[in-house]
Design goal:
- The complex is a heterodimer of chains A (465) and B (227).
- With 465 residues, chain A is mainly beta.
- Helix content of chain A is 7%, strand content 13%.
- Chain A has a five-stranded antiparallel beta sheet with strand order 1-7-4-5-3.
- In chain A, strand 15 and strand 16 (419-421) form a beta hairpin.
- With 227 residues, chain B is mainly beta.
- Chain B has two helices and 13 strands; from the N terminus they run E-E-E-E-E-E-E-E-E-H-E-E-E-E-H.
- Chain B has helices spanning 146-152, 218-226; strands at 5-6, 12-16, 22-30, 33-37, 52-55, 70-79, 86-91, 118-123, 137-144, 161-164, 181-186, 189-196, 209-213.
- In chain B, a hairpin with a 2-residue loop joins strand 3 (22-30) and strand 4.
- Classes of the chains: A mainly beta (465), B mainly beta (227).
- The interface between A and B is large, with 55 and 67 residues.
Chain lengths: 465, 227
Amino acid sequence: QRSPLNDFQRLRATELLPAVPAEPPRPAERGSAEQCARRCAASPGCRAFHHDRQSQLCQLLPRTQHSPRVQLHKNIHYDLYQKKDYLRDCIVGNGSSYRGTRATTEKGLRCQHWHAMTPHDHSRFLPSPRNGLEENYCRNPDRDKRGPWCYTMDPNVRHQSCGIKKCEDAVCMTCNGEEYRGAVDHTESGIECQRWDLQHPHKHPYHPDKYPDKGLDDNYCRNPDSSERPWCYTTDPGREREYCRVRLCKKRPRPHNVTTGCFRGKGEGYRGRVNVTVSGIPCQRWDSQTPHRHHFVPEKYPCKDLQENYCRNPDGSEAPWCFTAHASIRIAFCFHIRRCPDELDAQECYHGHGERYHGHVSKTRKGITCQPWAAHEPHEPQISPVTHPEAHLEENYCRNPDNDSHGPWCYTMDPRTPFDYCAIKPCCEPPPAPPAKLLTPTPPADVVAFEECGRRDERLQRKGR
Amino acid sequence: IIGGQPGNSPWTVSIRNRAGVHFCGGSLVKEQWVVSTRQCFASCDADLTGYEVQLGTLFKDPSPGDPDQQTIPITRIVCGPSESQLVMLKLARPAALNRRVALICLPPERYVVPAGTDCEIAGWGETRGTSDGSVLNVARLPVLAHGECNAALRGRVKESELCTAPLRAGVGACEGDYGGPLACLTADCWVLEGVITPSRVCARTDQPALFIRVSLYVDWIQKVMKM
């Protein structure tokens, strides 16, 4: 159940414009992005299309960002979808669908234009609107197993391969591939991947809006959940997800932010030896499967230093954690490892409750992008620039319009999280006075009144035994 | 609960994992909302499919025919401000309030419960032989003044924490009670003043017990329910 959008690469909030206005633009047609993709695929001259999500209109385009005399412009109303084959600089299979702009051979010889008959007369492969033989770009019209080739401008060399890499080799991955951003879009058994921004054929929680920094583009293999290596949901309804084959880089990156006595950020670089939880329960060894079975096997996560039973953060959680040796407590965070002091004063901070914060942080503490204050989806706001004109509710910047005592917050782009606090810390202000002074003085009990709560049948209490 | 005895606490809920095993406590603050602690869950993004709360019965594992038992799936977890260690759990449907299921009150914002106030903790956690572990146990603890507690714990008590005095008889929460309530009687109503969080030793006789001070987070709790 592949979507026609699988052939396209999406660029958000982007418009493709000719540098010099050329022919009048084609009229916009109504339709979903998938319907537009189907129309573009059926139209020989179409290589891309604009899709206006709000009005559900699309406009087919005869060019991509690699075409001459075009420019990309930011435009929040449009998403630009371009045919992958025209954008990729690597090949899938034998490369017969390659439509990139490489025009030199593997030895560096310039390619001859396909329509030209000199220096090499070839009359076999002549350009047509359908066969993609344009300019002097490398192409593979005869399905040569060595991939795209061209006639060369060297009179002594009639034709030569262009040496374009396979996509699965073009970009390698480090560690478990969490940062992999290559263009592999098939699983290791050859099944095509499902797009991350679609919920069919498989519903899933990894929506690109919710995880903007996981690179969940189009239907490329990614590793958003700290699996062993990049994977994807598949277009086969009978097979939910599968690993992809991606080359491992020869050089292992040096870990950064390595600390032993404290932790920075989420503690992914923590290499200390704390091995108990906050409540003193010993941690389980990473190389053991009892009492808790898990998939964080040290050999499969060589970059995460899963030694002994030390607190570590192999999966991008909020802080170092471990499986515990207590059978009924699977996981516990090691919050008792202190945060490195220099970090505390390095980030943006806010004073008081942050009601006067006017900075530009626009992510929640979990890294979810904030919803613009003026938007109505995915959450219908109760607080907006209309209801709070004086609160500087610009763009999707974190703000504190309701003087929330826990600091700046925002509505989020995660449909399941209406609001959350932002990744901003209070500035280091002089330590507060003892709580009794700060907190509400204790009114006499009879002043405080409660309604419909806190009452029980005291007889039951006595009859408890 | 160590040093408690079987009792009734109609707002205390049992939180159970996919295998139906009790692993933490919580407090019913609205028909569809339970307050518990962050330490009970792997992450704020935890997939709680199959997790549920059990209310209305004193038994940890009631027989299927128990007429008062209510079992409601959990649909969502919302983590509190980072230092709060609190979470709110949204239930798939409202709990039915009756003689065995009641809401606990929330304190006024930043309210400080007076030292010496009579409070109680409740849960189905470890009893270490001090009581019947198959039913809900309740234990009484008196609030300790913040200054005294700070002195006893060498200045390590945070503004977001609330203390109760240690009792020579060894009374306190233990594994399986985390997330449950410290309820205090104010104006004839039981109010959720604290939430039980893990401590290094259960029921210490030589140190105060720490709880998360709920009154600091009432605005967040109300906001979550409103939003």
